[in-house]
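Tutorial sheet, problem 5. The two components below are modelled jointly, 355 residues in total.
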Amino acid sequence: MSKKEEVKNESTTEGKDIEAYGAEAYAESAKAVREFGARVALSIVAAIIIWLFGEMIFLPIAKSLGQVFYGYPVHSIISFIIAVALAIIIFSVFFYIRRLTNGIAGILAFEIGKASGEVNIESFRHYRIALDGIIYVIVVSLAYLLFANYLGQIHPAIPAILLILIVIWAVFALWRSTRAIASELGRYTSKWAEELEKHSKK
Amino acid sequence: MNARKESSGTGETNVKSSGHSVTHYLSTALLIWLFGVLVFIPIADTISAQTKVFVSLIVFISFTILLLKAVPRVKRLLEVFAIVLAKKFKFMKEEDGQIMVFKSFLQIMFIIFVYLFYFPFLNNFHPAINGIVLIVVLLWCFFLFFRILQIIL
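Model answer (structure tokens):
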């Protein structure tokens, strides 16, 4: 077999490998979305219902009573109970949310990679890391919104401190995400830079 | 002519390597800005004015660090851009002057863009700080515009 043929064979097997890897990852991601989607959706609905009942019924009642229990206002205790219930629900599906976001990121990464026509295992992994980070920041921000008011009833400083910690974490999470995507964008920018160099040399 | 050689020399050799890190810094800065201005600062606003200022400060500092890291490379990219534009749109005999004109024009654009990105943070700190920065930006732009006019006329 000549060298040229060998190289051609290698590239076609690599192409098939990449396609198979992409399809496998897509199937895995779709399976994760199917498996955990319903469970996560149900937990989110439960969390929203608890939040609504707390916000619309229990907290107004507790505030109207204006009573103190062992030195603590009743509305603070009610808020603490609801915050704990929300935390249990959210943390019990935390693992599934992670798998679900991973799955969504995998599907998006596959679609983006397919659209650009330059799918390879490394770039698929990059897309996945990037999207995973961004989706994760969005999920944490939304989860924070559920807790913020109840934590504020316990002590006004708690949601502020938590938000500051989330913002600092988000900065690093986004940095990590864009580091992954920058190597993908870098390929396009280097092509563009070469064009620019040619133009400036002319 | 030397100035052009110098600028094109540094620009051409580094523009390729600049592209990648500039993309990383600027895309991170953009994402942090988007999440900060559209998500975190409005949430902080519902808690208290102090939290809003503090969150703005965190986003402001991280955005500024990333932008400062990107600025030297962006400057090199602007230089190369200016050379490309000067070669494409010839309206003067002197090539050096033409490059300077385009460079100054691109700098004005860049300064205005950067100011617009800083606008929400500065306004959150205090409207007066925003006003002072706007005055400085306007003076800087006028100075660059004056330089363009000096070269053209």
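Marking note: The radius of gyration of chain A is 25 Å. Full credit if you identified this.
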